C-alpha cells in the first residue's frame, strides 16, 4: 500500500530520505540540518553554473529535492561571478546561520559526495568541470569513481 496514495510521491520521499541519510552519516543525525545543507549547497552551486547545465542537473534530482533546487532560481543572471572559494562558502554559511554551527567545507564536500553517488556519473563530471576551479577543488575526483 502506498504511504501517500501516489507512487511518484512515495518514490521521491524514499529517494530523498536516502540522500538525507547519506548526508547525516557525514554531518550528524539531524534530518533538518541535512535538508538545509543540501539546499544551501545546491543553490550556491546552481547559481555558478550556466543555466542549461543547471537545468540538466535539476533533471537528475529526486522530485522533492528538485523543487527545493529551483526555489528562487533566476536563470537570467547566471552564472554568478565567483572569484574566490570564500564567497561560495560564505553564501552557504549565511544560509545555514540559524542552525547549529556547520563547517561549510564539510557541508559542501558531503553534498558533492551525495551527488557523485546518486546522479549519473557523466552528469556529475560535467557539473564538476563547469564549476570555477576553486569550487571544483572541493569535489574530489575519487567521489566520482565511487558514483554510479
**From N to C, what is the helix and strand string?**
HHHHHHHHH
Strand content: under 5%
Query: How much helix is in the residues?
Result: 55-70%
Over the alpha carbons, how many angstroms does the gyration radius reach?
Answer: 15 Å
**Structural class, from helix and strand content?**
mainly alpha
Full CATH superfamily name: Uncharacterized conserved protein DUF2267
Assembly level = single chain
Overall CATH architecture: Orthogonal Bundle
Mean pLDDT: 93
What number of domains?
1
Low-confidence spans: none
CATH class: Mainly Alpha
Q: How many angstroms does the end-to-end distance come to?
A: 29 Å
Using the coordinates shown, work out and report the CATH topology: Globin-like
Tell me about the biggest sheet? none
Properties at a glance:
148 residues; mainly alpha; Globin-like
Give your account of this protein's structure.
The chain is mainly alpha-helical and 148 residues long. The chain has a single domain (7-71, 80-146), classed as Globin-like, CATH 1.10.490.110. Helices cover 68% and strands 0% of the residues. The protein has helices at residues 7-27, 31-46, 51-60, 63-70, 85-95, 104-118, 121-130, 133-136, 141-146. α1 (7-27) crosses α2, α1 (7-27) packs across α6 (104-118) and α3 packs antiparallel against α7 (121-130). The longest helix has 21 residues, at 7-27. The mean pLDDT is 93.
